[in-house]
Amino acid sequence: MYSRQQKELNRLQTKVSKGSMSRREFLSRVSAMGLGAMAPGLYMQSAMAAPKQGGRFRQGVTGGATSDVLDPGQILDHYMLNVQFGQLRNNLTEVAPSGELVPELAESWEGSNGAKTWNFKVRQGVEFHNGKSLTSEDVVDSLNHHLGEDSKSAAKGQLGAVTSVKADGKYGVVVELSGGDADFPFILTDYHILICPSNGDGTVDWQSGTGTGGFSLVEHEPGVRTLTKANPNYWKPNRRFFDEVETLQIADSSARENALRTGELDAMNNVAPKTADLLKRQPGIVVDVTKGNKQVTLPMLTNVAPFDNNDVRTAMKYIIDREQWLQVVARGYGELGNDNPIGPANVYRATTDELPQRGYDPDKAKYHLKKAGFDSLNVKFHAAETGFGGSIDAGQMMAETARPAGINVEVVREPDDGYWSNVWMKKPFSACYWSGRPTENMMFSTVYWGEAAWNDTYWKNAQFDDLLLKGRVETDPTKRRAIYVEMQQIVHNDGATVLPLFLQDIFAINDKVRHPDVIGGNWELDGCKAAERWWFA
Question: What is the pTM (predicted TM-score) of this model?
C-alpha cells in the first residue's frame, strides 16, 4: 500500500476509534480509495479500538507533598499538576499532543497593536462543577490572581508584561501588554494559569478545587491521595472516559513498579531507567517513552558564596562526566545537556557550532577554581529522588569525578516529602528537574529571568533580561533566533545551572489501558492529561 494511502487510512481509522466517523462514511471513503473489499474488516478493527466509558483509573505519580494546596499558582510538581491541570481545571489555550497550540476555554484569539493587545473569545456553554456558567469575569479574575505585587504565583514572571485584563462583554476578554509578545497565547497554556470560578469580588475560589475540567474533586489528602469523579457535563467531545480517577503519591520508584505489577495501579510515571528494560519483560505491563524537553538541573544559589563567583560556577560545570550520567543515570534514555535549558523540542535551539558541547575536564575546573582564588573547594550536594530519579547515585558519581579538580562533594540525602519547600531554592547546591516549556520565552521567563518567582538560582544578568524583552516583541524568525541563541550562550557561560542531561519520560501502564497513537510529551503521562485522554479496553 502506498505510504500516502496508508496515511489517509490511518487517519480514517483513528476517527472511527474516537467515535467521530460513522460506519457508512468510513466504508464509503475506504471504497473510494480502491480498498472496498477490505473496508468491512478495517472498520471492525477500528471500532474495536474505540474508547469505552467506565472504570476507576489508578495512577501512581511522584511530586506530591503534605504542604500541597489547591491554588493553581502554587503548583510545584507533577502530582498537583496532574490533579489540577489534568483533571479539575482547564486553561484558555492548550498544547495538543502534536505540540500545536489549540483552543481550550478560549474559542479564538487575535493579537493587534504589535502583539501588545490580545482579544480572547471565551467558549460559551461551559459549566463549572458547581453548575456556575463560565463567563469573562471568571477569566479576568483568574488571570489577575497571578498579578500584583503581593502575588506569590509561580506564573507571575510569565505574566510580567500584562498591564491590564478587562472583560469585553459576557464572553470577551482583552489583555494589554507593556510590550508585544507573539507567544502570549502559548503562555496561557502554563499549568498555573488555570481558570477558577470568580467569587464576584475580584478574587477566585481556588480552595474548593472547583473547575471546568473532566473530573470533579471527591477526596483530597495532600501528598497522599486524591479521588475525582467524572464530570457529566464536560464540554470536550471524545474525552473523559473513566468514571473515576484515583491519584496516589508514591515517591519510591520500586514501590510504584511493585504496585503496577500486583495490579494495584493502572499507570505510573517516572519509571526508573535502570529497571525499565526489566519491567518491559513483565507480562501484562507496557513500558513506553515520550521525548520532550525534560531536563536534569543542578542549581547553584548565586546569593551565597562560593556560587556568587562565576569562575566557581564554571568549575562546577566541568566536573561532571555527562556521558557517564547518560549511560548510568539515564541508561541511554535521553541526550547530553549543555548547561542550556532550550531543548530538542524547541525551535530556536543553538547548534553545536553556535554553542560547543561542554565536557568533563578537571583541568579546566582547576583553572577556574584557581582563578576564583581557591586551591580546593568543599561543597554539599542536597538530593532526593523527588529532585530527579537517580540523583543520589548521580551525586556519588559527581563526587568521584570532582576529586581530580580539587573539589570535594558531600552528598546529603534529603527527605522526599517537603523537598520543594525545604531544599529547592534554599540549599546552595541541589538536585532538580524541569519539564521544559514549548517556547524559549516561556522557559527563560519561568526560570532564568532575574525577577522570576522560580528563578531557582537567584541569578541576574542585565544583558540577558534585556534580550528577553527584545525576543518577545521580535517577529522576524531570523532575528528572533539570533536573540535566543545569544541568550543560550549567556546562560551557558554565566548562568548558575549545571544542566548535564535531557531525559525521555518513561511511563508504564497495564495492558488494559489504551491511549491515542500520538501522546503529549510536554509533561509526563500524555501531557499530564492521561485522565481525560486515556481509557480501558
Answer: 0.82
